[in-house]
Design brief:
Blueprint: H1 3-6, H2 19-32, H3 38-50, H4 55-61, H5 67-78, H6 92-98, H7 100-106, E1 108-114, E2 117-122, H8 128-139, E3 142-146, H9 149-169, H10 188-203, H11 205-235, E4 253-259, H12 266-274, E5 283-290, H13 294-302, E6 309-314, H14 322-330, E7 337-341, E8 346-347, H15 351-361, E9 366-375, H16 382-404, E10 416-419, H17 420-426, H18 436-446, E11 450-460, H19 466-487, H20 491-524, H21 536-539, H22 543-569, H23 583-586, H24 588-603
Parallel strand pairs: 2-3, 4-5, 4-7, 5-6, 9-11
Antiparallel strand pairs: 1-2, 7-10, 8-11, 9-10
Helix pairs in contact: 2-5, 7-9, 9-14, 10-11, 11-16, 11-20, 11-22, 16-22, 18-19, 19-20, 19-24, 20-24
Length: about 625
């Protein structure tokens, strides 16, 4: 049978018919054929009337129909033939004419030409009439066929998966991306800076040491002042009141979870996401898995995933990073709001409703909402306690304070929610940046958008083994270094985009943090003086300078202790405040991580040191 015989090539019958009439026809057909019981159909129609879901999506998400039954009813309802994409793949040149990303976004694929007419397989026939002008501008005369969304995605992936992989790596504008970052031996400028530094240490070690000490102390003072200002701003914020009701229709929300070598996380992840109190027909969960990660692919294939969870395979690319997987998955997203979770996350059940309501009450300049991260295994060991205290101060005081001060907010990697159109306009995530969250926070601010903190908690697993902790932190610090360097390529432009206050805040937060981690050993060396050790820099310092340094040391320590204590007091963990005093022994690990990150920045800038999940949550996060 030829292509022209296998599919209707005429205009969609009754294209002007209203959506409610088509919905009624689909429901009536399914009832008449005994596919869906009457009481279940009434419930589905009631949900479809209150919310932004299509009736087929409602029925599919609730597990009331299988794709085969729904496809047949939809085909008869619209007077279309089913396109067999499994037997005959589409012409890749036609996909290129429309654009693979637009095909994914609209749930369609141009299949074959029959004479002058291009057959377009769609999984959403009710939208074909609206999309016809765009399709005809790119393809010429078109006619509709129908296929399942699964078959359409598989066909596009089979024909243009390689191009989609390349696109995921280069979405961000080159001037704001780190993908052109050279290794040390490829960068004459970096070699020159390193040579001058080494020469200065050899020729004038004391003068060089004093200069480094001055910068370390200055950055320490600036960081302490920024933390104090942010904490005061956060403490002065009004307590959150009851969320006012809204009559707006809730949108589809896409949640992307990038998985890599997660052999046994799938069952727990599904259970935790199933607790979300959001209509399943409006919940679009995408699990993005690397094509080479056969362990996770097999684990998901063996799992019983609900209809509202999809697995998207990320084609092999030049880098293998979380942001590249997020970019690829974004092309498949259906939601107007896009959220990001990590594999081990356990969000509060009402989190999505609160996010949707906050976006609906906010202006379009609020492009991102950052939730509060906490840990469900704070008592595993000393390291998990310190990590919990650090996060308590960071997410409950420092980040909310930065947002209230109108400064750049470096995003966390999870419990992030974005307006989809803003993500698309900015090129989403920089696939080569290993701290893609902080980088995206800067780019949002540069382009005039705001990030706000939302008072909803996601619990995750504290990385509480020393070596994995150092590996994870080295990736974060390496990303901070890379992000600062990328956005400082054009400092005058950055000044204009962020304004003086935002520019200076960015310098303190990023450059100051980097300097503290790298120069902390120099500051700690002064702790040897009370034990009778000589210090070459101490002898070169006047008394006033020594007193100033001691005062800044004291201010910084008090600031860190107070932020840790206040932040911990805002949690429900009940940890003793005495643990806050042990942070002095915790932060040296970050200096080890900083030097590991600096070495990787010169040799393996895009290497993603993977963190293993699911080691300490069985006992403490009772699923």
């Amino acid at each position: 049978m030829g292509a022209a015989e296998r599919i209707s090539t005429v205009e969609l019958p009754g294209a002007a018919a209203s959506a409610p009439r088509r919905t009624f026809a689909v429901g009536a057909s399914l009832l008449r054929e005994g596919v869906v019981p009457a009481d279940e159909m009434l419930t589905a129609l009631a949900h479809q009337g209150r919310e932004a879901g299509r009736l087929p999506d409602v029925l599919r998400a609730r597990g009331l129909v299988v794709e085969r039954d729904l496809l047949g009813v939809d085909a008869r309802n619209w007077g279309l033939r089913v396109v067999d994409l499994d037997t005959t793949l589409p012409d890749p040149r036609l996909i290129d004419a429309v654009g693979a990303q637009d095909c994914l976004r609209h749930g369609l694929v141009p299949w074959q030409k029959v004479g002058d007419v291009t057959i377009v397989a769609t999984s959403r026939p009710e939208e074909f009439r609206r999309l016809r002008p765009m399709l005809e501008a790119r393809l010429g005369p078109v006619a509709a066929g129908i296929a399942s969304s699964r078959a359409i995605l598989a066909a596009i992936h089979a024909r243009r998966g390689d191009l989609l992989a390349q696109a995921a790596e280069a979405r961000v504008a080159l001037e704001e991306s780190c993908r052109a970052w050279p290794r040390l031996h490829q960068s004459p400028r970096a070699i020159a800076v390193l040579s001058v530094t080494l020469l200065a240490v050899i020729i004038a070690p004391v003068a060089t040491g004093l200069a480094a000490l001055a910068f370390a102390v200055f950055s320490l003072a600036c960081l302490a002042a920024l933390k104090i200002a942010a904490t005061i701003a956060a403490l002065r914020a009004p307590l959150p009141g009851p969320t006012p009701a809204t009559d707006l229709i809730p949108p589809v929300v896409t949640i992307i979870v990038a998985l890599c070598r997660e052999e046994d996380i799938a069952p727990r992840l599904v259970r935790r996401l199933a607790r979300l109190d959001y209509p399943v027909e409006l919940l679009d969960v995408i699990l993005a898995v690397e094509a080479e990660d056969q362990v996770t692919v097999d684990a998901l294939a063996a799992a019983e995933l609900p209809p509202w969870i999809r697995v998207v395979i990320v084609p092999k690319g030049q880098v293998q990073t979380k942001p590249r997987a997020l970019n690829h998955a974004l092309d498949y997203a259906r939601g107007a709001i896009v959220g990001v979770y990590d594999a081990e996350d356990a969000p509060e059940p009402d989190q999505l409703r609160r996010v949707v309501e906050r976006f609906q009450r906010s202006g379009p300049e609020v492009a991102c909402l950052q939730g509060v991260l906490d840990y469900y295994n704070p008592r595993t060991n000393w390291l998990s306690r310190c990590f919990t205290i650090e996060y308590a101060g960071w997410f409950r005081l420092v980040l909310p304070g930065l947002a209230r001060l109108g400064l750049v907010v470096p995003l966390g990697g999870t419990t992030l929610f974005f307006r989809r159109q803003v993500l698309d306009s900015l090129g989403a995530w920089d696939a080569h940046n290993v701290t893609e969250d902080a980088d995206l926070g800067i780019r949002l601010a540069r382009h005039g958008y705001r990030t706000e903190l939302i008072d909803t908690i996601t619990q995750e697993e504290a990385n509480c083994r020393a070596l994995p902790w150092i590996k994870q932190r080295s990736r974060w610090i390496k990303g901070y270094m890379m992000t600062w360097a990328v956005h400082m390529r054009q400092p005058r432009l950055l000044w204009r985009q962020l304004g003086p206050k935002g520019f200076l805040g960015f310098q303190v937060l990023f450059l100051g943090t980097i300097a503290q981690f790298l120069l902390a050993p120099l500051l700690w060396s002064f702790l040897l003086l009370p034990f009778g050790f000589d210090h070459p820099l101490y002898a070169a310092l006047p008394v006033a300078a020594i007193l100033t340094i001691a005062g800044i040391f004291f201010l910084s320590e008090v600031t860190n202790i107070l932020i840790g204590a206040i932040g911990l007091g805002r949690t429900r963990h009940g940890l003793s405040l005495l643990w806050v005093l042990t942070l002095k022994l915790y932060y040296p690990l970050a200096s080890l991580a900083a030097y590991k990150g600096l070495l990787e920045l010169a040799t393996r800038p895009f290497y993603w040191d993977k963190t293993t999940h699911g080691l300490f949550d069985q006992a403490e996060a009772r699923d």
